[in-house]
User: Which sequence fits this backbone?
């Protein structure tokens, strides 16, 4: 499994960004896909997840109503639309994948992309 994250950058508070994750290397039937984020000195934090088959989503409380995760099966892509960004959303964002559904714990995901930096300026 290979995951390639992109779309990070600099944005002012209140703005929007869309992250993309290109997934390859196998078919993702029964897989769970997720976005995590990490800031220096802190553990990787769950942001959102989606099941590949049914598109069932789950969000961290801190991003509910502002972020939307989606997937495009035909393109093998996972997206994270981030709206109303805040300074505390600044982090390196990682996409992750696991067989057998989603989870909120980073240690349950064996496959990771390289990370993309999101900087929100207040």
Assistant:
């Amino acid at each position: 499994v290979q995951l390639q994250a992109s779309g990070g950058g600099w944005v002012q508070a209140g703005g929007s960004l869309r992250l993309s994750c290109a997934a390859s290397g196998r078919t993702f039937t029964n897989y769970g896909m997720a976005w995590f984020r990490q800031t220096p000195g802190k553990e990787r934090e769950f942001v959102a997840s989606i099941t590949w088959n049914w598109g069932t989503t789950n969000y961290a409380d801190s991003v509910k109503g502002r972020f939307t995760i989606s997937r495009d099966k035909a393109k093998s892509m996972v997206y994270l639309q981030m709206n109303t960004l805040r300074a505390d959303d600044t982090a390196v964002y990682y996409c992750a994948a696991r067989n057998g559904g989603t989870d909120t714990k980073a240690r349950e995901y064996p496959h990771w992309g390289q990370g993309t930096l999101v900087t929100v300026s207040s």
Notes: The chain is about 0% helix and 50% strand.
